[in-house]
Amino acid sequence: MKKDYRKIGAASAMTLGLVGLLGMASVQTPKDASAYFTTYVSAGGSQTVSMGAQTEIHEEIENMTKQVTVTNVSDNDCFVRVKVFYSGDLNISYQYSKEGEKKPVNPWTQSFEDDECDTWYYRPILKKGESTEGVFEIKIEKPAEDFGKDSFNVVVVQECTPVTYNEEGNPVADWNLVFDGYQGEEAGE
Length: 189
What we know:
This protein has about 190 residues and is an alpha+beta fold. It has helices at about 5-25, 30-35, 145, and strands at about 55-60, 65-70, 80-85, 90-95, 110, 120-125, 135-140, 155-165, 170-175. A five-stranded antiparallel β-sheet has the order 5-6-3-8-9, with no helix packed on it. The chain has a four-stranded antiparallel β-sheet with strand order 1-2-7-4, with no helix packed on it. The longest helix is centred in the N-terminal third of the chain and has 21 residues, at about 5-25. It is elongated, with a radius of gyration of 30 Å. The termini are far apart. The relative contact order is 0.18. Mean pLDDT is about 75; it is low at about 30-40.
């Protein structure tokens, strides 16, 4: 019996063609094609979310001391807090200064509820367009010989929440306020 290699070659070519077409059918659009060739994705940046209050932080560094003020740039009054994150081998101290006053009353109060960072609350309500009074200072105390050996970060994150009122009409800060109305490019999907 003589084999017809042309028929076997044609059948093999058709089989390979069908397998190729089936593989191509799963990649229909450029979006699918990019997903097919991507093994991972990373994201970066930030998104500003406003829940009726918005603030800006101002930081200056002088003599290993961060000087922090916060400005309310929204149309609403708000409460403000800052969180200070740093590595455990740094010694950090805090102080408050106000120009012209020898011993000013400190409007910042530390909370010991968070183990991951130092949290400080600015107690007066920050009125729209105003900045925190004086300067909140974060002094980095580490031996001078250690500064050249390692790099380190002291990160200050500011947060704000709009002033809300309880049943008695007293202003309260709701730090658990949840934002659920994002409207961006993905809205409606």
